[in-house]
């Protein structure tokens, strides 16, 4: 049907700090896709102290990956919900080839085939700099950066007007190093997995957020 032809089911790949969350916001604004971030889902589960949240916390606070099966189950439950009408962005999943294989099963069972995989490429030294400068609004979770994205009015969240900010536990320097190492190991095999399927586009994530989105938009607008 027409509707299915217009569906965009996208994976955003990129190491921690590559700008997946930042790009997702802009993609959602234009394409109305459902944003599914496993990191956000785990942080919510941790805040609510659910069983999954408590299990995830022991991994996340050290910068390690939550086990593949736990993560894949969460994603399958989310993708099964009826609100995903115009397609989805997977942000932060898959991040191992095992997860990529599990996702193949999920998209087949749910009849929601992937249409695009976009990898944001950023050098490691830039990632370290970005992550240590990132801070979040305590109230709404909006993301800022001491170097590149300060609130328009100092000390006030642009999105919700909140005045309290915090640094993510896993953005502290001793955790960032391990996070990058853990994710770097899986990065090339994951890109190869989708390159072999003919789905992969690589984009330079060191450009301004506006330019990064322009490049993404050029890929996605071809789908419609
Ligand atoms: P998650 O929350 O997904 O963290 P991540 O992958 O490490 O990604 P980030 O959110 O840190 O970075 P981002 O790419 O979204 O960058 P952002 O746009 O914020 O996961 C957290 C943890 O959960 C994992 O470590 C793991 O333990 C667990 N987990 C999650 N998914 C899992 C899975 N599938 N399997 C197992 N475990 C899993 O940008 C970063 C900063 O840079 C911001 O301050 C931003 O303002 C700035 N910035 C962004 N773009 C630009 C730009 N173009 N120029 C300048 N600055 C920029």
From TrEMBL:
Keyword Cytoplasm: yes
Enzyme class: transferase
Any Pfam family hit: ADK_lid
Pathway(s) of this molecule: Purine metabolism; AMP biosynthesis via salvage pathway; AMP from ADP: step 1/1
GO molecular-function term, one example from the UniProt record: kinase activity
Sites where the protein binds Zn(2+): 137, 140, 157, 160
EC number: 2.7.4.3
Binding site for AMP: 38, 43, 64-66, 92-95, 99, 168, 179
Top-level taxon of origin: Bacteria
Job of this protein: Catalyzes the reversible transfer of the terminal phosphate group between ATP and AMP. Plays an important role in cellular energy homeostasis and in adenine nucleotide metabolism.
The protein's name: Adenylate kinase
Organism: Lactobacillus intestinalis DSM 6629
The encoding gene: adk
């Amino acid at each position: 049907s027409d509707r299915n032809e217009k569906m965009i089911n996208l994976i955003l790949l990129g190491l921690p700090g590559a700008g997946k969350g930042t790009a997702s916001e802009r993609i959602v604004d234009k394409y109305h896709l459902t944003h599914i971030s496993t990191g956000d889902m785990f942080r919510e589960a941790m805040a609510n102290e659910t069983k999954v949240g408590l299990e995830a916390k022991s991994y996340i606070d050290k910068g390690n990956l939550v086990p593949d099966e736990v993560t894949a189950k969460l994603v399958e439950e989310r993708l099964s919900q009826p609100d995903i009408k115009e397609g989805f962005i997977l942000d932060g999943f898959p991040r191992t080839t095992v997860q990529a294989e599990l996702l193949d099963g999920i998209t087949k069972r749910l009849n929601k085939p992937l249409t695009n995989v976009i990898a944001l490429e950023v050098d490691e030294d830039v990632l370290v700099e970005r992550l240590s400068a990132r801070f979040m609004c305590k109230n709404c979770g909006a993301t800022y950066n001491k170097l590149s994205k300060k609130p328009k009015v100092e000390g006030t969240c642009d999105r919700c007007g909140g005045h309290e900010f915090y640094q993510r536990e896993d953005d502290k320097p001793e955790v960032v190093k391990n996070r990058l190492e853990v994710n770097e190991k899986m990065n090339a095999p994951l890109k190869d997995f989708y390159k072999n399927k003919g789905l992969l586009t690589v984009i330079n994530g060191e450009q301004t957020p506006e330019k990064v989105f322009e490049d993404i938009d050029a890929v996605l607008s071809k789908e419609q």
